[in-house]
Design a protein that fits this description.
Length: 181
């Protein structure tokens, strides 16, 4: 198996396992077993579990940024684009595999022990905040609205995971509509 294939298998297996069970609950041996990549090759590609977690989060970051940008840009007005963020969340929360935000979960689980993971999480959350800030500016709204909308989005992520329901996305969207008025 070439390095690119092995790396992709490891990233896919680690992403699924970390997201489903949590990072600390997943051993490198479990990732080896699911991926089919030897432990020796795993450590050649990712010298530590922390490196693997960071790589998984970077892949998720790229995918989420692309998906969210495509989702919002498909709407015609800046206000509709802002509200589309919450529609995106509703669709995501409605998937059977939804377990909360991988970035929030990783931060909560590893904050004290992994500065690299914290950096990837903060980079992702800043990028989402920047997207929302652009949408708010395009809508001609006050810049302070961006932070308020980000809090609604992140709060919806946590609440939806705890409640095991997509409904918090609808409630956050309703609150966003009130803020936009």
């Amino acid at each position: 198996m070439d390095s690119t294939t092995a790396e992709q298998k490891l990233l896919d297996a680690a992403d699924a396992l970390f997201y489903d069970r949590g990072i600390n609950a997943v051993s490198m041996d479990a990732i080896r077993e699911v991926s089919g990549v030897s432990l020796k090759r795993t450590y050649q590609l990712f010298p530590s579990k922390e490196h693997l977690v960071e790589a998984v989060l970077r892949v998720r970051d790229t995918a989420i940024r692309q998906d969210l940008a495509a989702y919002t840009s498909a709407r015609t007005t800046p206000t509709e684009q802002i509200l589309a963020v919450f529609d995106y969340l509703y669709d995501w929360f409605s998937t059977p595999e939804f377990r909360g935000c991988a970035f929030i979960n990783s931060f909560a689980e590893l904050r004290g022990s992994s500065p690299g993971v914290v950096d990837v999480v903060r980079t992702h959350k800043r990028a989402v905040a920047d997207l929302i800030a652009v949408l708010v500016a395009e809508a001609g709204r006050p810049t302070t609205l961006a932070g308020q909308l980000l809090i609604l989005a992140n709060g919806a992520m946590v609440t939806a995971a705890i409640a095991d329901s997509p409904q918090p996305a609808r409630e956050a969207r309703d609150a966003a509509e009130r803020l936009l008025r």
